[in-house]
Recover the amino acids of this structure.
């Protein structure tokens, strides 16, 4: 028998422990998002603790005052990757997204473009739909606030909460860019060299103006105790973002929930009062109910996770639950909050000219390339830094050199002349496998459980870390065993090819939520049937007894080059 060399496994020590388990052991891994809320405001609506058949996520509906950028795409990718993972785990999924098309900011943007508001909205919402199609965001519901069914839902919702509202005068700061009312403590005043005073939002830096008008007011303070109880269940994740919520919880007052139609005509009129337009955030938040059939029904509500950026957390963590309480409706199970994306360590800004267009990046680096980078680099609790040069390095090092190259090596006709994915030969494994070989496969057996824990908690970057570590070790195994020297030991060669391909198969199934097209192409190459690409078929590894014929079709992911001044 050919002498087989050992290879060091230090690279997999952090991801390797000997665990044997079936797929259901990680299908029901407890997740942060499923255990977030343990309080009466939610539990009174949900009496069963069994696994829910439908998993639902939402993005915010995106404001159509400008074209989408990578921050919008990242939010959608978090929702999409989560839903894809749940679907692979055997659950039905619902992904809600759409566009927010009312408000004074839309009026002004339409005027600047010499269009009617609806014409302007139609042009921009199309860009979002094209973005989602290009990056394979598989939404089930796309809500436009200009749609008639949504207007019906908002009108009905207004009537439900109207018993809590009253008419009064508001005088204070309003930020049109953020569509939000601000107190004196939430604005910053500055004087320029000419003595002119400017006032901006302390949070966003956007300009503010003083308005004085008669509006309908909503008493947020009436729901303070219930909001505190809801938040005691750690609804917001990561919990560090509660630092953005607590100051508002401590100072709840009356919120203006309408604007005079003479000032904001582009919106949904207040029922029975055409002099007022419903506040754009009331309008926008109700989209989540619209997607679940409101007002005719609310099947499968409450939603599992609202996925939002930190800049709009207060609207989802304070305004929205208060409105739902007033309407006597169930509260969301969780709010997944993420930070912003910088560009080369600078804030994205139209004036600076560094807003990143995802569609142009797709043309250079593929849709899966950008999906991979954003989910690989993005961490919920801290601002991400988009660097085109860093993305190129990631794609070349990890997708090209580690993943694609491993596939090319084991499907090369110079090594795999029969173009087979050989079955596992237990007898040869028991006689030939070294301790290091066994550790590699034990590590593969434990990989799905660890990846599931990270994916279930929206830590996609950690899941990818574990997968990449496994692939690097498999490359190391290939280098050390040197299968090109085993042509006279066909049984051992086939075993080595099987072990490498089995690592590729498991890793590719786990990568489907991140890079769906590349994963599908790799699994196609390995001859893995479509019905065998769910988590049910991950374990136990090496359980297949059939020989598969591979379908090699060129390099899976080619090296990419830096473009222009990419750093």
């Amino acid at each position: 028998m050919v002498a087989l060399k050992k290879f060091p496994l230090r690279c997999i020590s952090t991801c390797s422990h000997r665990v044997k388990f079936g797929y259901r052991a990680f299908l029901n891994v407890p997740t942060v998002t499923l255990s977030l809320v343990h309080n009466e405001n939610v539990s009174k609506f949900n009496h069963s603790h069994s696994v829910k058949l439908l998993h639902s996520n939402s993005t915010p509906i995106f404001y159509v005052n400008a074209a989408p950028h990578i921050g919008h795409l990242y939010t959608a990718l978090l929702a999409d990757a989560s839903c894809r993972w749940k679907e692979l785990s055997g659950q039905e999924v619902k992904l809600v997204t759409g566009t927010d098309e009312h408000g004074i900011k839309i009026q002004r943007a339409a005027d600047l473009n010499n269009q009617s508001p609806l014409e302007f909205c139609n042009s921009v919402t199309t860009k979002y739909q094209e973005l989602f199609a290009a990056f394979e965001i598989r939404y089930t519901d796309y809500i436009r606030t200009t749609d008639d069914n949504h207007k019906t839902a908002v009108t009905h919702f207004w009537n439900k909460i109207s018993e809590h509202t009253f008419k009064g005068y508001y005088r204070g700061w309003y930020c049109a860019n953020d569509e939000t009312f601000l107190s004196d403590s939430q604005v910053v005043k500055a004087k320029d060299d000419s003595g002119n005073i400017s006032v901006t939002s302390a949070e966003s830096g956007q300009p503010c103006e003083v308005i004085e008008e008669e509006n309908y007011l909503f008493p947020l303070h009436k729901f303070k105790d219930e909001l505190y109880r809801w938040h005691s269940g750690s609804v917001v994740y990561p919990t560090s973002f509660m630092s953005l919520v607590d100051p508002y919880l401590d100072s709840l007052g009356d919120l203006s929930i309408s604007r005079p139609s003479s000032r904001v005509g582009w919106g949904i009129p207040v029922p029975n009062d055409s002099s007022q337009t419903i506040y754009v955030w009331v309008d926008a938040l109700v989209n989540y109910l619209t997607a679940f059939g409101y007002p005719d029904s609310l099947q499968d509500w409450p939603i599992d996770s609202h996925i939002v950026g930190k800049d709009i957390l207060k609207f989802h963590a304070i305004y929205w639950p208060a409105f739902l309480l007033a309407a006597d409706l169930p509260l969301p199970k969780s709010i997944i909050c993420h930070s912003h994306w910088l560009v080369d360590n600078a804030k994205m800004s139209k004036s600076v000219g560094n807003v990143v267009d995802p569609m142009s990046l797709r043309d250079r680096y593929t849709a899966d390339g950008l999906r991979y980078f954003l989910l690989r680099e993005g961490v919920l609790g801290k601002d991400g830094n988009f660097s085109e040069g860093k993305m190129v390095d990631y794609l070349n090092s990890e997708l090209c050199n580690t993943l694609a190259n491993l596939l090319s090596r084991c499907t090369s006709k110079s090594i795999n002349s029969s173009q087979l994915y050989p079955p596992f030969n237990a007898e040869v494994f028991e006689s030939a496998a070294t301790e290091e070989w066994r550790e590699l496969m034990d590590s593969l057996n434990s990989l799905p459980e660890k990846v599931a824990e990270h994916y279930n908690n929206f830590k996609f970057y950690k899941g990818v870390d574990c997968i990449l570590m496994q692939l690097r070790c498999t490359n190391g195994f290939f280098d050390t065993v040197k299968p090109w020297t085993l042509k006279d030991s066909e049984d051992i060669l086939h075993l080595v090819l099987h072990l490498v391909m089995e690592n590729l198969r498991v890793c590719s199934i786990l990568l489907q939520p991140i890079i769906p097209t590349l994963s599908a192409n790799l699994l196609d190459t390995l001859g893995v049937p479509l019905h065998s690409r769910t988590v049910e078929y991950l374990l136990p590894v090496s359980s297949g007894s059939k020989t598969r014929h591979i379908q090699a079709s060129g390099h899976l992911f080619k090296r990419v080059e830096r473009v222009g001044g990419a750093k």
Remarks:
- The two ends are 51 Å apart (CA to CA).
- DSSP finds 19 helices and 21 strands in the chain.
- The longest strand covers residues 209-219.
- Confidence is low (pLDDT under 50) at residues 5-52.
